[in-house]
Design brief:
The protein is an alpha/beta fold. The protein has one domain (14-235): Protein tyrosine phosphatase superfamily (Protein-Tyrosine Phosphatase, Chain A). 49% of the residues lie in helices and 10% in strands. The strands form 2 sheets. Strands 1-4-7-5-6 form a 5-stranded mixed beta sheet, with helices on one face. Helix 5 packs parallel to helix 11 and helix 6 (117-129) packs across helix 13. The longest helix has 15 residues, at 204-218. It is globular. The two termini are 15 Å apart.
């Protein structure tokens, strides 16, 4: 088992290893998900590099997000490669919602899958390229990261219920950092509890709905992503152990 991250500036960071599949388990210490890493302190960056062995950070943030928050300087100082793959799942229909419910998040994910199949497939292709431990994530490590994690674990053969439970862990991972999201209720402090529930909580049924809708529309997860057999073989060789 890998060492757990030290108490630090890390937000919503965890190892995706340990999930059972038909052919074994997802290896620990090779595949990590996270919120953005631009504000890491020195000790956190050193832990990711020296203790966990991470050598690649795959960043899904859009250009405006990295312009605002900056580059992951402390990771770069440790020699971690910063690989960018920007995309944004939000759309006008979702942006009109002040306090989205789990069904609204599921509908957003399904629309995003329809619209962003090449981007999602591209993220998984990049993950398949690397033999070294890799961490991937977006701004909060919740939605774009949650979608990529769910689709990737499904391709590896992980059961939907396990994937949904893993997605649900984001709630407890974000709540200690809720002040980073205070912009959501700025000027409306009375709505803080409501908006925390709406934006920081991850209901496992949302992920179950996405996976079900993907299969209903495309037959299989890879029917949606259209990844070559070679990519799937590399994923299984690198991230599954018997």
């Amino acid at each position: 088992m890998t060492s757990s991250p030290a108490p630090s500036s890390l937000m919503n960071f965890r190892d995706l290893g340990g999930a059972p599949t038909r052919d074994g388990v997802v290896a620990q210490g090779r595949l990590f998900r996270t919120a953005h890493l631009s504000d890491l302190d020195h000790d956190s960056a050193a832990h990711l590099h020296s203790v966990l062995g991470i050598r690649v950070y795959l960043d899904f943030r859009a250009e405006a997000e990295t312009t605002r928050d900056g580059a992951p300087r402390r990771l770069l100082d440790h020699g971690v490669r910063w690989q960018r793959h920007p995309f944004d799942i939000s759309d006008a229909e979702f942006q009109a919602l002040r306090a989205p419910q789990p069904g609204d998040w599921q509908a957003l994910y399904v629309r995003a899958l329809e619209r962003l199949r090449p981007e999602l497939a591209g993220a998984i292709r990049m993950i398949a390229e690397h033999e070294v431990p890799i961490v991937f994530g977006c701004w909060a490590g919740k939605d774009r990261t949650g979608m990529v994690s769910g689709l990737l674990l499904s391709l590896l053969g992980v059961d939907d219920e396990w994937i949904a439970e893993e997605y649900g862990k984001t709630t407890d991972s974000l709540l200690p950092h809720k002040q980073r999201f205070s912009f959501l209720w700025q000027g409306e402090p009375a709505r803080e509890p409501e908006l925390i529930r709406a934006h920081l909580h991850t209901d496992p049924r949302t992920m179950l709905g996405l996976l079900r809708a993907t299969r209903e529309r495309f037959g299989t997860v890879n029917g949606a992503l259209d990844l070559p057999d070679g990519v799937l073989a590399r994923l299984r060789a690198r991230y599954l152990v018997s």
